[in-house]
UniProtKB/TrEMBL annotation:
It holds the Pfam family DsbD_N. PANTHER family: SUPPRESSION OF COPPER SENSITIVITY PROTEIN (PTHR32234:SF3), THIOL:DISULFIDE INTERCHANGE PROTEIN DSBD (PTHR32234). This is Thioredoxin family protein. The keyword Transmembrane applies. The chain crosses the membrane at residues 295-315, 336-355, 375-394, 401-425, 445-469, 489-505, 511-530, 542-559.
């Protein structure tokens, strides 16, 4: 511990009792609960809001060369539990050659409080907190303390809108979990740490704040380099750094944005371009350039999703509905905007849910919802219903949540059609989307949601153009009898999609789960057949859906979950690949063998196309065998968090991900669309 910090600690311990009788004046604290009526058995967020006077500052958990971090002492009701205080991204303050990690403006520590289960509504929950902290200017330091008491009442967990907005601002200031382990190395008095970060993510003001004491010389300058998806920071090592078994810290990307992570000992590459040079992140235009590039890639990726077999029939039917509407400009534009709104809203909602899960510490990735077999069952029934409608078994009039999903049901129908298209398109990540969605996970929330919106705009773009460009609509075939034949043909890819969903359900829930899903689809088909018969006779019959929906809901509740496991026999087929694990990867690297690693999921259409069209080919197997290329496959169908964290460590948010390891070199990320020649060249 530096001498100055030790002296300050002793002074603080001596001075604190003498100052306890007067309220602190230099940093004003407040204890606030996000909800004053938390629900029993749930968690409520508390905040200790700190407001320093001008010229004064408080300290991070690790204060650096000088200072003292805050200390919290709770008095809580029986059964209640307070989590550790969460600190926002700190700032640097160099005084007299000493580096301080501080907060010079308003900031807040967030604490999660677990409320005991079984408490009756109206139960009072007295909360007391005693805090000691250090307030400093560039010349003096004053130990301060405070005691706070609030009383909560067990209720329904309601949160006031203004209070929620206030807490959301404080949450946004916290570093987000990187979701991947970094590596650090101490050699020749230099501490070098490698942090996985997408090449498209801006890091113009990158700086490493170590939470673990004794890792680096705090005041020493840091050199930051970038080599693809790896950010490397070099700094003078502390004398005890070589003995550390783990180092925790925060990588600040700019003044208010950071990533928290844990690093383990290991080799760290020394190459890469200095940030700010031609090869650095700043050359791409900083944060604005990163957002613009990622937005463009997401837009292109969304555009390509329109050719997927589960999306193309829906887009085609909406295009044909415009053909039926003739030259009605107002109708065409209204439907185009409604369709776009549905697509973008679902993409942004899924993106927000993904960011929320990651902020809570989960290693979730894009299409995370498809890792739940209950979602697969719902999609199976929905796609089956659409396929049967396209095949002519029944006609959609007005069903529940917004009108016809695949007919020209006006603006509401167009909106729900777009929402459906976006939801079922998420299993696919095209060649432009991997880097864009990976970057979204490390950008500020607003920028990240902009990228998800770009994905939605790309998906909606063809129909949007048809709605606003009359010349394109005039190129559509005129209505006629051929439309019914075309409609029947469009049912084929939808039936194939339903078949694929049934297979995925079997992989996630076993044979019993797949049988239950097919049984629910059969019940739905019988109900829709009955409805179609009554429609032919001019009589209503939608009441027949009630039993089928009851069966579906019951099956969703009891659906088993039997996670799919990649076995040695099936993992890679002709390549005889082994299941992926970081332990096995490390062992193969020690053997000095080249390694091809790929990550897949049963619900990922792009993955399956690559596997059948490129990976599982005889010429690829022969080339790999000749050069002794090892193959590892990671099955992410069930959302394995270990695989999720490894994927994130390479700047990606989902599958597919293809990596090639040459002995002694950093892993190379391959394109998301593979060809046999791409793979055989690796063994050349």
């Amino acid at each position: 511990m530096p001498l100055l910090r030790f002296v300050l600690l002793i002074l603080a311990l001596i001075a604190t009792p003498a100052m306890a009788q007067r309220a602190p004046t230099h940093i004003a604290p407040r204890l606030i609960a996000e909800s004053e009526v938390p629900a029993a058995g749930r968690t409520v967020m508390l905040a200790l809001a700190m407001s320093p006077e001008k010229g004064w500052h408080g300290y991070w958990a690790n204060p650096g060369d000088a200072g003292i971090g805050p200390e919290f002492k709770w008095t809580l009701p029986a059964g209640a539990k307070a989590g550790p205080a969460q600190f926002p991204v700190p700032h640097r303050l160099l005084i007299g050659g000493l580096m301080n990690y501080v907060y010079e403006g308003d900031y807040a520590h967030l604490i999660a409080l677990d409320i005991p289960a079984g408490l009756a509504p109206g139960t009072k929950l007295p909360i007391s907190l005693a805090v000691d902290w250090l307030a400093c200017t560039e010349e003096i330091c004053v130990p301060e303390s405070g005691s706070f008491a609030i009383e909560l009442t067990v209720g329904d967990g309601t949160i006031d809108g203004a209070r929620k907005a206030q807490f959301d601002r404080w949450r946004a200031a916290l570093p987000r979990p990187l979701g991947a382990d970094a590596r650090f190395q101490v050699k020749d008095g230099v501490f070098r740490i490698g942090v996985p970060l997408p090449a498209s993510a801006a890091a113009q003001d990158a700086y490493f704040f170590p939470l673990t004491d004794g890792a680096i010389d705090y005041a020493a300058p840091q050199t930051v380099r970038r080599d693809g998806d790896l950010l490397t920071i070099e700094v003078k090592a502390h004398g005890s750094a070589a003995s550390l078994q783990a180092v925790e810290g925060v990588l600040a990307l700019d003044r208010d944005t950071g990533l928290s992570f844990k690093a383990a000992p290991g080799a760290v590459a020394t190459g890469g371009a200095l940030l700010g040079s031609d090869g650095g992140a700043e050359g791409a235009g900083g944060l604005a350039g990163t957002i613009a590039t990622s937005f463009g890639l997401a837009l292109l990726g969304g555009l390509l999703l329109n050719i997927m077999p589960c999306v193309f029939p829906i887009l085609s039917l909406k295009a044909l509905s415009l053909a039926r509407s003739g030259e009605d400009e107002r109708t065409a534009r209204r439907e185009a905007l409604a369709y776009t709104a549905g697509v973008v809203l679902v993409c942004v909602a899924l993106g927000a849910a993904l960011l929320g899960l990651r902020a809570a510490g989960a290693a979730a990735g894009w299409a995370f919802q498809l890792q739940d077999p209950r979602v697969i069952l719902v999609l199976l029934l929905l796609v089956s219903g659409i396929a049967l409608n396209l095949a002519g078994l029944f006609e959609i009039g007005s069903i529940g949540v917004g009108g016809a999903l695949v007919s020209s049901g006006g603006a509401s129908g167009a909106f729900w059609t777009g929402a459906l298209a976006a939801f079922i398109a998420t299993p696919c990540t095209g060649p432009f989307m991997g880097a864009a969605l990976g970057a979204a996970l490390v950008l500020p929330a607003t920028a990240a949601l902009t990228i998800f919106a770009g994905l939605g705009i790309g998906l909606a773009l063809p129909f949007l153009l048809l709605g606003f460009v009359p010349a394109l609509r005039r190129r559509l075939p005129r209505p006629g009898g051929w439309m019914e034949t075309f409609r029947r043909l469009l049912s084929i890819p939808m039936f194939l999609t339903a078949l694929g969903l049934a297979w995925i359900l079997g992989r996630q829930s076993g044979v019993n789960g797949m049988t239950m899903g097919l049984g629910a689809a059969l019940a739905l088909a019988v109900a829709l057949w009955w409805i179609g018969r009554r429609q032919s006779a001019g009589r209503p019959g939608w009441f027949a859906l009630a039993p089928a929906l009851a069966v579906a809901i019951a099956l969703i509740v009891v659906l088993p979950r039997q996670p799919a496991q990649a076995s040695t026999a099936e993992a890679g087929g002709i390549l005889a690949a082994e299941p992926f694990s970081e332990t096995r990867l490390a062992a193969l690297q020690k053997e000095g063998r080249p390694i091809f690693v790929y990550f897949t999921a049963d619900w990922c259409l792009t993955c399956k196309v690559n596997e059948k069209g490129a990976i599982e080919r005889a010429e690829v197997a022969d080339a790999f065998k000749a050069k002794q290329v090892a193959v590892l496959v990671g099955d992410w169908t069930d959302g394995d968090p270990a695989i999720g964290r490894f994927i994130e460590s390479h700047g990606r948010s989902g599958v597919p991900l293809y990596l090639f390891y040459q002995p002694g070199a950093a892993p190379r990320i391959l394109p998301q669309v593979l060809t046999p020649s791409t793979l055989t060249a690796l063994a050349g």
